[in-house]
Design brief:
209 residues, alpha+beta, 6-stranded antiparallel β-barrel, two-stranded antiparallel ribbon, 8 strands
């Protein structure tokens, strides 16, 4: 009918990420976390948000992730950056605490658990499904006694909790999108009446009162 059609694509959609990491925490919902999407190639912060997210079998989802996807889709050459592993999701698991305050919190927890093994000392700090992953990434031996953990190891743990990185790999299919972009070019539609600017008396939608 003479209207320009822009190829539809997902606009608000879950994101795929490194599977081994995400599958280890599949089903884990994080609340009150700060997330950032960063292009490490050009050091650009693409998006930042605070709220809830979810680890899935394919990557990540949830309110903050869905919101971030719309911004990521607009990133120039995004598919190329994703293939190269240059897009990182950086999660601050304890946004209410700066690194100094978090270190004090961890030292306090460690004092209570000083005779326990490291793997048994994090239940008040982290959700159960995340503890194994944090231990592995921290480089601290799981069976190490808490009172033997060094200052350097504790610093690595603090850094990990404040900047937990997940490498993004792609977008979920358009069939899974909450919202899509594209279709009839909106510049060819009167936004007040939803009438076509090209064809008289042709209306794309109308109110039903």
């Amino acid at each position: 009918m003479g209207h320009t059609i822009i190829t539809p694509q997902a606009s608000i959609v879950p994101l795929e990420a490194e599977k081994k990491l995400c599958q280890a925490m599949m089903g884990l919902s994080l609340k009150n976390v700060k997330i950032q999407l960063i292009n490490i190639e050009n050091h650009k912060k693409i998006y930042e948000d605070f709220g809830e997210m979810l680890f899935t079998h394919f990557g990540v989802s949830g309110p903050t992730i869905l919101s971030s996807s719309a911004h990521l889709l607009r990133e120039k050459n995004v598919e190329e950056y994703l293939k190269k592993g240059k897009i990182k999701l950086v999660i601050d698991l304890k946004p209410a605490l700066d690194k100094s305050a978090l270190d004090i919190r961890i030292r306090r927890d460690f004092e209570v658990c000083k005779n326990k093994e490291f793997k048994n000392s994090l239940d008040k700090l982290l959700p159960k499904k995340m503890i194994g992953t944090i231990i592995e990434l921290s480089g601290i031996e799981a069976s190490k006694k808490v009172n033997e953990i060094t200052r350097e190891e504790r610093t690595r743990l603090v850094d990990l909790l404040k900047d937990f990185e997940v490498t993004m790999t792609g977008f979920r299919p358009i069939e899974e999108a909450i919202v899509t972009a594209g279709g009839v070019c909106v510049k060819e539609i009167n936004p007040k009446t939803m009438q076509s600017k090209k064809i008289a008396r042709f209306v794309f939608c109308r109110r039903s009162d």
